[in-house]
Write a structure and sequence with these properties.
The model has no long low-confidence stretch (mean pLDDT 97). The protein contains 14 helices and 18 strands. The longest helix has 20 residues. The protein folds into two domains: 135 residues, 3-Layer(aba) Sandwich (Rossmann fold); 286 residues, L-fucose Isomerase, Chain A, domain 2 (3-Layer(aba) Sandwich), CATH 3.40.275.10. β3, α3 and β4 form a beta-alpha-beta unit. With 438 residues, the protein is α/β, with parallel strands linked by helices. Helices cover 36% and strands 24% of the residues. It comes from Sphaerochaeta globosa (strain ATCC BAA-1886 / DSM 22777 / Buddy) (Spirochaeta sp. (strain Buddy)). One of its GO terms (cellular component) is cytoplasm. This is L-fucose isomerase-like protein.
Length: 438
């Protein structure tokens, strides 16, 4: 499900052009827009023509707390209008120009493109860069999706349990920079807050039944199954009680030692249910998953760029055993195992399904944020390793992708989802003024 946004829409015009035709086009546009999922619309239903109209529309919309503004150039219009609206609405703007209508009596009817040009120039010269321009019959839904991401980040409450993993300096964040760039806030909790979180016996029992139905647990002891079940219930309840958008976990080195099992298997189960859980205290990784989820992508998760084969031109996306269990390939044995942490690892083990992939890393560095984006494809492979993993090919040599990661000093986790989610994120970066590494 996509993140809901609230958008304002105005149609600008001038009576020296065919404003009657613009009015008819705007009626149809409003009808079409209302078919788009997860958008609350605030329409100024009459054409905005005069300065008085512009002031009234701006005053009206200023009380609506919208996430974005769509300004349709129904015809050419006064340059005041968009500036009046922008003055009251500090939100990204879509400048929408309409294709010209057939000429009628030798006179251009709309001159909409020139209106868009006027607005873009006025905004740019006023110091605004958060506008996007289209010239087409229908709205740019990728722009709407970009605003979903921006809103989801702005409203995010990210919890971190413990700290980042030992030595993983590259996934640390500066909380105020994160807030300033995205609006997301971070709350810190201790590992013991989860260890000791009280949950009903019935919740633990339900989790145990779910685990036994989902995984081959033949190599686990009764104690280990009970601990994984208990942790799944605790993490779920803790996440919900604290109203979290995501939770980053210092999952080693203390977790298995002090709780009795690592959190990997419990995280695999809960991520399959839509919770956003980041390994190793990676807050920017959690933010990346929040962005993917806002676009409607299902069960994002973090992976390590663990292996490259330059001769066969593929990469291995691997992690120790935390990928959402619903992404299993349906072929291999989906099991739980204890291959690390002295037998306390308790990780999920399976190959992930094949399909088109989108990769995202929102990454803080040197006082700002940047965005790493890639398209890829998961292809079939045998179950040869412990943990959760997939064999991946890109639409370019894997060496080039690896060099992008290394040359730009990107953190070693990225969010991956099935499907194509690229252009909307490019628009997010443009609106936010972030560098895109692609």
């Amino acid at each position: 499900m996509k993140h809901t946004v609230k958008l304002a829409v105005v149609c600008l015009a001038r009576k020296t052009y065919d404003y009657g035709a613009a009015e008819e086009l705007y009626t149809k546009i409003r009808s079409d827009l209302q078919k788009i999922e997860a958008v609350d619309w605030c329409f100024i239903e009459t054409l905005v023509i005069s300065q008085e109209d512009g002031l009234a529309a701006a005053a009206n919309l200023a009380t609506e707390h919208v996430d974005g503004l769509i300004c349709i150039s129904g015809t050419f219009h006064l340059g005041h209008l968009v500036l009046m609206l922008k003055r009251e609405l500090s939100v990204p703007v879509l400048l929408w120009g309409l294709p010209e209508l057939p000429y009628n009596g030798g006179k251009i009817r709309l001159n909409s493109v020139c209106g868009v040009n006027l607005n873009a120039s006025n905004l740019y010269k006023s110091g605004y860069d958060d506008y996007t321009v289209i010239i087409q019959d229908s709205v740019d839904e990728d722009w709407i999706d970009a605003l979903r991401v921006i809103k989801a980040m702005k409203g995010a409450k990210i919890g971190i349990i413990g700290y980042r993993a030992d030595g993983f300096f590259n996934v640390g964040v500066q909380d105020n920079l994160l807030y300033g760039q995205t609006g997301a806030l971070v709350d810190h909790y201790e590992l013991g807050d989860v260890y000791s979180y009280a949950v009903p016996d019935e919740a633990v029992k339900a989790r145990e039944e779910h685990i036994r139905a989902t995984f081959d647990v033949s190599t686990l002891s009764v104690f280990q199954i009970e601990k994984v079940s208990s942790l799944a219930a605790k993490l779920d309840a803790f996440y919900q009680a604290n109203n979290l958008s995501a939770l980053a976990i210092r999952c080693w080195p203390e977790f298995a030692r002090d709780f009795g099992v690592s959190p990997c298997a419990a995280m695999s189960l809960l991520q399959s249910e839509g919770l956003i859980l980041a390994c190793e205290g990676d807050i920017d990784g959690a933010l990346s998953m929040i962005a993917h989820k806002a676009l409607g992508a299902q069960t994002p998760f973090l992976f390590d760029f663990s292996q490259v084969d330059f001769e066969q031109d593929f990469a291995l996306f691997w992690h120790c055993g935390v990928a959402p269990c619903n992404l299993w390939d349906g072929v291999c044995n989906r099991s739980l195992d204890t291959y690390f942490a002295g037998g306390k690892g308790v990780t999920a083990d399976f190959v992930l399904k094949s399909g088109e992939l989108s990769v995202l890393r929102l990454d803080s560095a040197r006082g700002g944020y940047r965005m790493f984006l890639q398209k890829a494809k998961a292809i079939p492979m045998e179950k040869l390793l412990k943990g959760t993993y997939m064999k991946v090919v890109f639409d370019r040599p894997v060496r080039e992708v690896l060099n992008l990661v290394l040359d730009n000093g990107l953190a070693h986790h990225s969010s991956v989802v099935y499907g194509t989610y690229i252009r909307a994120l490019e628009l997010v970066a443009r609106i936010k003024g972030w560098k895109v590494i692609q």
